[in-house]
Amino acid sequence: MADDDQISIYDEIEIEDMTFDPNLQIYHYPCPCGDRFEIAIDSLRDGEEIAVCPSCSLMIRVIFDANDLVKEEPKQEQVKSEVKVQA
What parts of the chain have a pLDDT lower than 70? Predict the structure, then answer.
């Protein structure tokens, strides 16, 4: 974010305390409003550190080292299986 002084941060949370959802590729953490703060792993890799709750105005700063992020899994190539057809 361009100007962190203008952002009101609710809390600072260590990445180890957040949960990673491999299907959505996001880290999340419970918000006091009952929803959860969310930040995409790609955003973290791009240097973003602010996770936002989609239900309220609260934001948290994620404390992390790039080496602590879940490793990007290589895209699996579709393997063509050979099927023998008997005539």
Answer: 1-6, 72-87
Q: Which residue(s) pair with 39 in the sheet? A: 27
What total of structural domains would you count in the chain? 1
The single-letter code of the amino acid at 86 is Q
Compute the Cα dihedral for 21, 26, 30, 34 and give only its sign.
Answer: negative
Query: Which residue has 């995409």 as its token pair?
Result: 40
Q: What's the pTM?
A: 0.72
Cα 66 versus chain centre, distance: 12
Kindly report the CATH number assigned to the domain that includes residue 32. 3.10.660.10
Domain assignment present for residue 82? The answer is no
Query: What does 41-68 look like in DSSP terms, one character per residue?
Result: HHHHHTT--EEE-SSSS-EEEEE--GGG
CA 14 – CA 32 distance, rounded (Å) = 17
